[in-house]
């Protein structure tokens, strides 16, 4: 199936994929029993949450509140709709005639639910690691592009404090880079003159620098 090629996963049980793509409006219009995606959407929501939570916990040295805020931005309807659109998921949905006529293929809630149902289908068919690989394809890209906007600009805050003493100088040093291209991990240290005052980990160098500056600010009591 074309969608399988897009997502890089081939189902052993095609019925799981069929169910993930079937909206309740389609099932309601057919006399024969048709499975639709609401139950899989429920499971997919939980699988998505644990994958994202695990990834953020292991890759970002952030406080609980920041982790929660970042996770929420990645699993919200707006983000899931964008993920779905990136693989043209709406094109493959089975919708009832009424829902179709009202533009259901582009409706954010329908696309978000179908995306979560697709996560569940992959999880049920191939296990957690296949589901994790699928989810992180979208999540890591979103983090690279959007993370900076989710946090205060800690680098600027740190610079404003340090520049009050002209003899002091802040520099950032990349000390480690690992992982494949789609799942990079950067470790950055921030130095005040020659002293390390913070260390940050992120999915981009920019994000790791922000986290290093944040740690430095925390050490300063800010």
Written description of the protein model:
- The protein has 222 residues and is mainly alpha-helical.
- Helix content is 60%, strand content 11%.
- It has eleven helices and three strands; from the N terminus they run ααααααααααβββα.
- It has helices at residues 2-7, 14-20, 24-28, 38-59, 64-75, 77-86, 97-101, 108-126, 128-150, 154-162, 205-219, and strands at residues 170-178, 185-192, 195-202.
- Strands 1-2-3 form a three-stranded antiparallel beta sheet.
- Helix 4 crosses helix 9.
- It is elongated and about 80 Å long.
Enumerate how many helices there are, as a single number. Answer: 11
Hey, roughly how much beta strand do the residues contain? 5-15%
For this structure, the quaternary state is: single chain
Contiguous runs where pLDDT drops below 50 for at least 5 residues = none
Based on CA inertia axes, which overall geometry fits? elongated
Number of strands: 3
First CA to last CA: what distance?
A: 54 Å
Q: How are the strands ordered across the major sheet?
A: 1-2-3
Q: What do the pLDDT scores average to?
A: 90
Radius of gyration: 22 Å
Q: Order of SSEs, N→C?
A: HHHHHHHHHHEEEH
Give the helix proportion (percent range). 55-70%
